[in-house]
Specification:
53% of the residues lie in helices and 25% in strands. It has 100 residues and is α+β, with helices and mostly antiparallel strands. It has a single domain, classed as Winged helix-like DNA-binding domain superfamily/Winged helix DNA-binding domain (Arc Repressor Mutant, subunit A), CATH 1.10.10.10. A three-stranded antiparallel β-sheet has the order 1-2-3.
């Protein structure tokens, strides 16, 4: 085993001439990013849930109520749907969401 300072200033660990620490560092950053993303989606789901307490709303109305962009609203709706807390209704091209 030997320690080596890579060109990117990351500390890398070589074992039998194979780099083993760099993939661990990359995995750490991936997990940190996905954890932050899940947290953001979870908070958005909370905002959407609170907005839906008032009653059925369209995605456009949810944008106004929560201040979230459409992508985050759709992610939050998916989160709440996975938890079985909402129901959907389509009217034309508009999607309406309501609590169960």
């Amino acid at each position: 085993m030997q320690y080596y300072d890579c060109l990117t200033r990351n500390i890398c660990l070589f074992l039998n001439n194979r780099l083993i620490l760099r993939p661990v560092i990359e995995l750490f950053y991936y997990l940190k990013f996905t954890t932050m993303l899940k947290e953001k989606i979870g908070f958005g789901a909370g905002d959407v849930y609170i907005a839906l307490i008032k009653g059925e709303l369209s995605v456009k109305a949810l944008k106004k109520e929560t201040g979230l962009n459409e992508q985050n609203i759709l992610l939050a709706i998916g989160w709440l749907a996975r938890e079985g807390k909402i129901k959907f209704r389509e009217e034309g091209k508009e999607l309406f969401v309501n609590l169960l």
